[in-house]
Amino acid sequence: MAGMAAEPKYRELADELKQAIRSEATLLGVALMDGAKLPTEPELADHYRASRGTVRQALAGLAAEGLIETRGRAGTFVRRLPLLEYNVDSERPYREDQSGTVTDTWSSVVKASGREPSQDFKFRIEPASRAVAEKLKVEENDLVVVRELLRFVNQIPWSEQATYYPYQIAKACGLDVPQDIPEGTVRRMAARGYVEDRVHHEIGSRPANMEERRRFNLAPGVSVLLFRRLATAKETITRLTVEVLPADRNVITHITEHAAEAKQ
């Protein structure tokens, strides 16, 4: 049987450089911290005993992940944002801190990481597009309430979220107003009789578009994660939430707990 093909040299080099950047190691006298200037391609080629073409391919892969950026003739620099772990937690969209104050889970996670969350809020009422109408099971051009958030971590744009509500449900729950809902929309709907009992998650990715590259200051080639959630309450669809999360600063995780099986 033929042996497995060896991993391409540029991938080996990319993995080694990635580990060095993530551990903030020192390479050829350079501490690879955020903003540090990398050694030149010839220096890296000599150090790793690789061709400049191999080094260039490895660096291109790191740039696509948002770990480095090239600034013209100035050189190539480490551009490393600490990853925020975004846990799929549909059952507890809100948490209470030690003082008893209710905060959304995302803000709690950011604060627990030692960083400061903030957000910009937008509101609109619009006719449902075909795609939104199909998800919400309403007619195309029926009115939907859209509540949007642009989220920041330490004032850096981090993700954006848009939630679409069927107009009649939003009106019945008092979500059809351009103000923040202190207790959160999920709790507000539950208090009005729409207790979510099922949330369908869909996670995907795609290349960032020009507007997203501008909004999040993304390096060329960085993708965005798409996190969609469709919630129901007693078989009535209550909302569609769509989040866009740049892949250079977010990771989506999910933890499944299994009860121990009884031994026979």
Automatic annotation (TrEMBL):
What Gene3D superfamilies would the database entry show? Chorismate lyase-like (3.40.1410.10), Winged helix-like DNA-binding domain superfamily/Winged helix DNA-binding domain (1.10.10.10)
Tell me yes or no: is Transcription among this UniProt entry's keywords.
Answer: yes
The protein's matches in SMART domains, at most eight in alphabetical order, are given as: HTH_GNTR, UTRA
Record's InterPro entries?
Bact_HTH_transcr_reg, Chorismate_lyase_/UTRA_dom_sf, Tscrpt_reg_HTH_GntR, UTRA, WH-like_DNA-bd_sf, WH_DNA-bd_sf
Q: Which residues form the HTH gntR-type domain?
A: 7-81
Q: Which UniProt keywords apply?
A: DNA-binding, Transcription, Transcription regulation
The GO molecular function terms of this record are: DNA binding; DNA-binding transcription factor activity
The record's Gene Ontology biological-process terms are: negative regulation of DNA-templated transcription
Q: Would I find DNA-binding among this entry's keywords?
A: yes
Q: What is this protein called?
A: HTH gntR-type domain-containing protein
Q: Which organism is it from?
A: Actinophytocola xanthii
